[in-house]
Amino acid sequence: MGVSIAVSTAYNGRRVTASTAYLAEVPPNLTVLTNTAVKRIIVTGKKAVGVEIPGGEIYASKEVILSAGSLDSPKLLLLSGIGPIRELAELDITPIVDLQGVGKGLRDHLFTTLTIIQRPATNDRPAFYNDSQAMSRAKEQWLQDQGGPLTVFQCAQTACFLKNDRVYRSEEFKSLDGSTQDYLKSRTVPHTRALTPKVKPEDCYLSLVVAFMNPQSHGEIRLRSADPDEPPLADPKFLSSPFDRRNAIESVRAAVELLDEPRLAKDTLALAAGPDGRTDEEIYDFIQESVMSVWHMCGTLKMGKQEDPTACVDKDFHVVGTEGLRVVDLSIAPVIPKYYPSFLSLPLEETAHTQATAYLIGEMAAQKLIAEYT
Q: Which of 109, 191, 218, 296 is an active site residue?
């Protein structure tokens, strides 16, 4: 589909975060409490009125807004009696709202990394990192004009989004429902994302990060106990979908074929990380041993229509069945492959990084709150 230098969250040569982007000028109505973990939401009747923290309580003047993420936002609702009534009863938590979708529908991206050891001097990265004077000069140049070698070695990644005809021909793809097949065949929807990561090698080597797009597997978040200090039980059910397993196998196979291209293979000394062979079984063994989460988790408090029994949040971010309680984070995004929030006039096809979607969710919620309270 395409290859380019990857987009970076940077401006004028410096890293940009949500904090630097939105809080460079601290608003007067913001107070941040560090090292303060919320234990549960204080609910009167069905209205959220505040939160319980270690050693005390904080009460809201208008509403309580959860932005704890796809793991901890559902955890806080469950601890507060909002969730599947059977799960709450098992832990002797008094139910306030029987909301079946809380903690369900967890989606995430997965990735693995293939690495080849190359002949010395195949690229100039090792020489740069092993030369303290070159690094000092590069630092001085960056401080002067935000240019030079550091903008290449520390920042530049090559990224590509790929489709794979072998996926289309597979029985696992053919077993998907028609609408999902049509979506995955869309011109702008990839099967695989590949990156060449930033590294600081002693040897000369090349790594290829392979991320599996459009997962069909979905997991869940449950409480371990009624103790708010206990982390939740997260079961992502990675690769439980036959399609996800097939897509992962074909994605890694395509990556191996790329590394075997003559223009790369002529400088390759060894495969440092990758499958032992080319069979499905050998490739899948490697995937199971090496796969990791991209931490693009979403969907555990999905936004949905009123008639959807699994929806947890309405189009205005309100938690269904409650008053004065909203959720504003990626947990409300119902799926990774395609996200059609009702407050957007155009569809947002979520097939890559979730950062932009997270920012958009926050921006849209802020606009709604401003409109309601001003």
A: 296
